[in-house]
Amino acid sequence: MTETTGRVVLVTGASSGIGATTARLLAARGMRVVVNYLHSGTAAEEVVVSIKAAGGQAMTVQADVRVAGAVGNMIEQVHKAWGGIDVLVHNALTPYVIKPFRDMTWEELGSKIDDEMRAAFTVTKAVLPAMTEQGWGRIIYLGTGLSRQPREGMIALGTAKAALTQFARYLALELGPRGITVNVVEPGPVEDTRMAHVLDEKQKQRQVAATPLGRLAHPGDVAQVVAFYASEDNAFMTGTTAAVNGGMSMY
């Protein structure tokens, strides 16, 4: 893979799961990694320690990515240390309820959509000036296969992430002439993440049975796709969505 040495990448929600695995992989490929977290400061610091132990560069920055002031402070801290952000991996997962529509209030559905889009809007606005100035940037959003393949009880998350995916397409159209690519990675069920508890053992086995590759995804499977989108090698893909689900989406 083409070198990305020295590029600065911000990974939101990077203290565990897909975010932490992505942070470690991008650091191993030569990027300077900003490990963003909201509450899990100890876990985020452990990610940074592991990156540095492997010879990489990383720093933690706490910020609620839904809050413009907090994001602005985060960008300022990074700028003082390393300059502008070249790559955004927006992975932070805002809270959501798991229940059928008939039992859901507008506040429960509407708040998830608002949180999802507010976070994407806020963090993207903050990183764009540096990308635009240099005429190069990579933006990757973490979506979910639930935005295309509904599953019972997941209407809040699936609807919010579907909005995020469409948002990314519009940005790809607008930002392409500025040398900035915008893409979405949509995993199916992933082991060892905060969302893994959503599937009980019986549901998990059904998902595995419906997957041609015969297992659920691991965080590393998703991180590898994110890493491609973040790299110099991705010179001509924008506005796309990568389904990382072992072939489950074919059905």
Compose a concise summary of this entry.
The protein is an alpha/beta fold and 251 residues long. The chain contains 7 helices and 7 strands; from the N terminus they run E-H-E-H-E-H-E-H-E-H-E-H-H-E.
Structure description:
This protein is of the alpha/beta class and 251 residues long. It has a single domain (8-245), classed as Rossmann fold (3-Layer(aba) Sandwich). Helices cover 44% and strands 16% of the residues. It has helices at residues 17-28, 41-53, 68-82, 106-134, 155-175, 201-209, 219-230, and strands spanning 8-12, 32-37, 57-62, 87-90, 137-142, 180-187, 241-244. Strands 3-2-1-4-5-6-7 form a seven-stranded parallel β-sheet, with helices on both faces. The chain is globular, with a radius of gyration of 17 Å. Pfam families: adh_short_C2. Belongs to the short-chain dehydrogenases/reductases (SDR) family.
